[in-house]
Specification:
Radius of gyration of chain A: 23 Å
Strand order of the largest sheet of chain A: 16-13-12-11-7-10-9-8-17
Number of domains of chain A: 2
Number of strands of chain A: 17
CATH topology of the largest domain in chain A: Dihydrodipicolinate Reductase, domain 2
Largest interface: A-B, 68 and 69 residues
Oligomer: homodimer
Structural class of chain A: alpha/beta
Shape of chain A: globular
Strand content of chain A: 15-25%
CATH class of the largest domain in chain A: Alpha Beta
């Protein structure tokens, strides 16, 4: 483990330095990729920079998609991988250590479950579940085989989220009380295209719930030690009316046309409030159908401190500025002032970002895709637990179907299954390591 | 009505101008004030600058409080008011046109109801109700007498909230979809003092719900036309654990002392999600027990635009900056940028703020106390409807007891009574006027 840290520091040296420091070559990790869509193109950009990551097999039923991915690998100077049309054949290959499953939201859970049952580590992309049953199957497969399934939730490795985790673990926020998160991203121009096969358009057309909860829930769950001394207990979910996507479809296809007048079931804003076993609350917001700047609505708040993404601020009691003022009647009162998030980086960046912050060309989404992939690949190499495991995947993704159920019942509270069967109580925090969350 | 506007412009002229423009003197409005606490001191600072507002009667059972208020009026050069110990005696006075009722949260509703029944206009301070029954009594008293009860919700006259209303009414936000608001104010140093009679300390000790919803809900309700073509339909409410106030009490009184170890029932963060008849959702947050900068969490979002207080930003589709970017895989995407709220003031300030923005010395809370008081006093003078009426008071304050009920039932959705008995459907927006909301 120390080796990787050393190698990362070494790589920060200018390329022109006379003799690069010698370090042991990392053993290769042989990857299969199942599902070769746009997301895979982004993943390949990150994989190209990760030493030891070898794409030895790819799988898709769409020949054009296969050709495009083979072309990218060729331009990267990589050896041509074996190509499969049936993912079950790919899973039979002894030469594959692990699979990435960037397939559709309705297929990545069963495919990942099959991968675990075949003894392969599996990495899925973000998303939500359609039923708790498909999550139980994943959990049982991981428990039965001892093989880990990780969600490549890149936001768990985002700089601010990791720094806030660091501040929390150092006790600077006190006891945690409340968190917020969300996915607020104007995706009208893509998601309104119901005939283009764009995944969100289908789910937004037919479903009504928080179908994309993990970008901020993942980091929050890690910060709140979910499945390791804490767990999600219940949620309530509420959907606004649906207008934005239909207006976008009308604009795109024309008023009065069949696609232009299509109905979307998904409320433009879905608000979900989760209660945790230890009494913390989490408010999640999903909104992709309205114009606004992007935000993940991050908020982590404890008895001593708070981070609020939209204010780009952190406030820590007794440390951040606090000013005595006098009101018109002459009575004193105190006002607290935000400190900019950036002013904490130098001292409080998480060790992962202390190591990587000067590295360039980290790949997709400002480097965080690469960090999540590195975490997965290193775990596969070491046959270790992934920092996000099947219990995490199940807890996080269950928000989607439970949210749909709550909305269907008019906002009724819905309990979370305990996917750990009680093990969350005694499971301690994951052992320290370069990628531990 | 035009006269008042003219007088406001005139008053902006330098005092040294040779001859002040002549204008008719406003008829006096004779006020009784019931309850002479700290809030009354702040109100008097605002009343002093309002032409025609005469404090002719005051009432409190506490002689020291009476003496303090009489001292303030004397220093302001005002005539001494009549003093009452029993508010019912004050309500019998023909010389009183209207009463301000800045009494405790548990007493202002029944006193205001008695005032309406005595034919006096009544203004109450902000707060929440303990039962829907006390709100029904207020509504029935107002309906029976034709006299109006206003909540002095100063935030309804705050600059940003009014400007956002103006933007919404001009259609710049499109159809409204979702709003957020809250009261996040670190009040630990006062509210932990359980023996000092500070009102919040009592309510935070015994209750668990959003006991202070109106500061942002009031403006939002006006923007959403609640009780005038729309209404609150249901809510769910969720409370976090309670830690902040007890820690503050322990610090204030000492660990191990009776007051230092006292329990507070109120969750540190209470999250309430309201659904409106026309499909909009509203998320409210109450938090006074944790350290953080003040915020009312304002957010108003429609199909074309959004205001977000914590980002100090407004984004309007097709008007605010939007930038085309390219991801690592070469695919294009668009990012939207906030515009600072201040950049909208010049063009979009609400007429009320266009009139008053250059006026100084408006009294408490940056002038908004004064605006709310002027709105009330002008309505009394004209025997007109107040811009916030008994139906509004009932709808807004009912959030408190309904939130307590929802939390008590584990987050169960709770329906709102329709305090208008169906009149909300046909009631149009209030007639235009200088204070109309």
């Amino acid at each position: 483990m120390t080796n990787r840290r050393t190698s990362a520091s070494a790589s920060r040296r200018p390329v022109s330095a006379a003799r690069p420091r010698r370090r042991p070559r990392l053993a290769p990790v042989r990857l299969g990729i199942i599902g070769l869509g746009v997301r895979t193109e982004v993943l390949l950009a990150s994989l190209a920079g990760i030493e030891g990551a070898e794409t030895v097999a790819v799988c898709d039923v769409r020949e054009a998609a296969v050709a495009k991915i083979l072309g990218i690998l060729e331009r990267q100077g990589k050896p041509a991988p074996a190509v499969f049309r049936d993912y079950r054949r790919l899973l039979e290959q002894r030469a594959v250590d692990a699979v990435l499953v960037p397939t559709s939201w309705n297929s990545h859970l069963p495919i990942a479950t099959d991968a675990l049952l075949a003894g392969k580590y599996a990495a899925i992309e973000v998303g939500g579940a359609s039923s708790t049953e498909e999550l139980w199957r994943l959990v049982r497969a991981s428990e039965a085989t001892g093989v880990s399934c990780m969600m490549l939730e890149n936001c768990c490795y985002a700089r601010n989220e990791l720094m806030v985790m660091n501040l929390v673990r150092q006790g600077l926020f006190g006891e945690l009380i409340h968190c917020e998160g969300g996915y607020e991203h104007d995706l009208r121009e893509f998601a309104c295209m119901v005939e283009a096969g764009y995944e969100r358009s289908i789910h937004n057309r037919f479903r009504n719930g928080d179908i994309y909860p993990t970008h901020q829930l993942g980091p929050i769950a890690k910060i709140l030690d979910i499945n390791r001394g804490n767990r999600f207990l219940k949620l309530t979910s509420t959907a606004s009316k649906a207008r934005g996507m239909q207006l976008a479809a009308r604009k795109h296809y024309g008023a009065g046309t069949p696609f232009g007048e299509i109905a979307f079931n998904m409320g433009d804003i879905v608000t979900t409030v989760i209660t945790c076993a230890n009494g913390e609350t989490i408010t999640l917001t999903h909104g992709i159908a309205l114009p606004r700047p992007y935000s993940r609505n991050g908020r982590v708040q404890g008895t001593r401190g708070i981070w609020l993404e939209d204010a780009n601020g952190i406030y820590i009691d007794g440390m951040s500025p606090s000013i005595q003022e006098i009101d018109v009647a002459g009575n004193p009162y105190t006002t607290h002032k935000w400190e900019p998030v950036e002013s904490f980086y130098e001292t409080y960046d998480h060790p992962i970002w202390q190591t990587y912050r000067r590295q360039k060309q980290l790949g997709g989404h400002g480097g965080i895709d690469s960090l999540a992939l590195r975490a997965f690949i290193d775990a596969v190499r070491d046959r270790a637990e992934t920092p996000i495991d099947a219990y995490d995947v199940a807890a996080w993704m269950s928000v989607t179907c439970l949210s749909e159920q709550s909305i269907a019942c008019g906002g009724q509270p819905v309990p979370f299954p305990d996917f750990t069967d009680g093990k969350w109580i005694a499971r301690g925090r994951a052992p320290a390591g370069p990628w531990a969350l």
